[in-house]
Amino acid sequence: MAGKREQNREQNRQALIGAVLDSVAEKGISETSVSEIIQRAGLSRGMIHLHFGGKDNLVHAAAHHSSEEYYDGLEALLQTAGDSPQERIEMIVRGDLSERVLNRRNVNIWYAFRGESRNRKAIAEHSDTRDGRLRGMIHNAFSRIVREAGTPDASGAARDATHGTLALLEGMWTDFLLHPDRFDREEAARIIFRFLAAMFPAHFSLKGAVRPQQEKGAAPAAPAVSAP
Amino acid sequence: MAGKREQNREQNRQALIGAVLDSVAEKGISETSVSEIIQRAGLSRGMIHLHFGGKDNLVHAAAHHSSEEYYDGLEALLQTAGDSPQERIEMIVRGDLSERVLNRRNVNIWYAFRGESRNRKAIAEHSDTRDGRLRGMIHNAFSRIVREAGTPDASGAARDATHGTLALLEGMWTDFLLHPDRFDREEAARIIFRFLAAMFPAHFSLKGAVRPQQEKGAAPAAPAVSAP
DNA sequence: ATTAAAAATGGACAATCGTCCATCAAAATC
DNA sequence: GATTTTGATGGACGATTGTCCATTTTTAAT
């Protein structure tokens, strides 16, 4: 049973965190007051102090939760991806642009926290570690790609590719934030792959990843989704 | 003289706007209270209501001011740029990444307002019109480039190039926001030009714009700032 | 059933918020 | 110089903020 006591306790903690995220997404940080939170959570005023020791800590926990959720989702996606580094990159790009990850709620939450991150060190930390982990994943893949492709300035190219891909993804998120209606996920993906195809023509096309080919001499493998 | 009366009046209005921007940059929006503002401006409490009719309107005016400042600076830069579209693009990119535009203060202000823009329609509008004007400038230049280059899907390519360039710039700003210390302006510019060179090899290189060449036959004009 | 322990409640609290106005100071007009 | 006009002042105001705790309720242990 795990104890009805602790079960309720955890349930209420999650309710508070969820209420914060809902409120931040809908009304923004400045209108996310204690009254607003406890009203949404359907709990009593003292709960915030009881479970988190104060509003700041609760908001911090909510930011942490949101960040973990994002990263876990991305990592889950990655496990379904192929082994080739370009497939992993494609999966990250498409995942980061997918409805499940890139939606109004998440974007609102993310940018709301960003705007205040300068003051709340704790929030900034998570924003950082998330980016750090994502950056590491992408950089690993590009390191393998430049090795395969024999690119001249290998480490520089991997760094630029990582930096560019992340910047493009960030830019697409901002685009979605400002114009959620006219945003076109396919167009966003195509632009990123245009960038990647330019850097690594053997590994990417405008459609996404190019299937790994035989290392030397043989004819290219059958394209996955190209012919009419 | 323009009247000492109106002179003081305008001076105080500007002082209030400046105080808001300073406070937002240093402490964030949530800590930018009326008390904080009037203290920074060295004025009395009633001034905000007198000149702007309330705090919200003042903040709105400050956002507007900041936005205009950004755009005016960029437009001034553009007038010093060459006539060729690729030179105009280079100027926009370098300008947007320059110390004068991309600095801690501006980035903090910009992202703080963004985070709250969903709730304050007025702020969102400015964020929109600024982006709209910038987008128009970039798109115009790329439209000329694709025409010169004879790119197949002309309008699509111009659109993608515009979208990609703006996304990259946005991403670079975010990068600066999160890591102002390790940010490298040269690297940021190089990555963007890598993207542009890939799309328009005749117009861009990793260093920036490629000088326009005579359409047919003649020797290239003397490069402006190339030889050692 | 009784007791011990823990969690939840909701109001009290001081502090701060933004607004507004009666009052004062200064510039413009006569 | 007197009068009018307008800007500037700073305190009062009610509303709302986040924190905290005495009390009640619920679960677990005896």
Main beta sheet of chain A: strand number and arrangement? 2 strands, antiparallel
Low-confidence stretches of chain A: 215-228
Assembly annotation = homodimer
State the end-to-end distance of chain A.
57 Å
Secondary structure tally: strands of chain A? 2
User: Greatest chain-chain interface?
Assistant: A-B, 41 and 41 residues
**Level of helix content of chain A?**
55-70%
List the helices and strands and how they pair.
The structure is a homodimer of 228-residue chains.
Chain A: H1 4-27, H2 34-41, H3 47-52, H4 55-79, H5 85-96, H6 104-117, H7 121-149, H8 154-178, H9 185-199, E1 204-205, E2 208-209
Antiparallel strand pairs in A: 1-2
Helix pairs in contact in A: 1-2, 1-4, 1-6, 4-7, 5-7, 6-7, 6-8, 7-8, 8-9
The structure holds a DNA duplex (30 and 30 nucleotides).
Write a structural description:
The structure is a homodimer of 228-residue chains. Chain A is elongated, with a radius of gyration of 21 Å. In chain A, helix 5 runs antiparallel to helix 7, helix 6 crosses helix 8 and helix 8 runs antiparallel to helix 9. The N and C termini of chain A lie far apart (57 Å). With 228 residues, chain A is mainly alpha-helical. The longest helix of chain A is centred in the middle third of the chain and has 29 residues. In chain A, a hairpin with a 2-residue loop joins strand 1 and strand 2. In chain A, strands 1-2 form a two-stranded antiparallel ribbon. In chain A, 38% of the residues are buried. Chain A binds a DNA duplex (30 and 30 nucleotides) through helix 1 and helix 3.
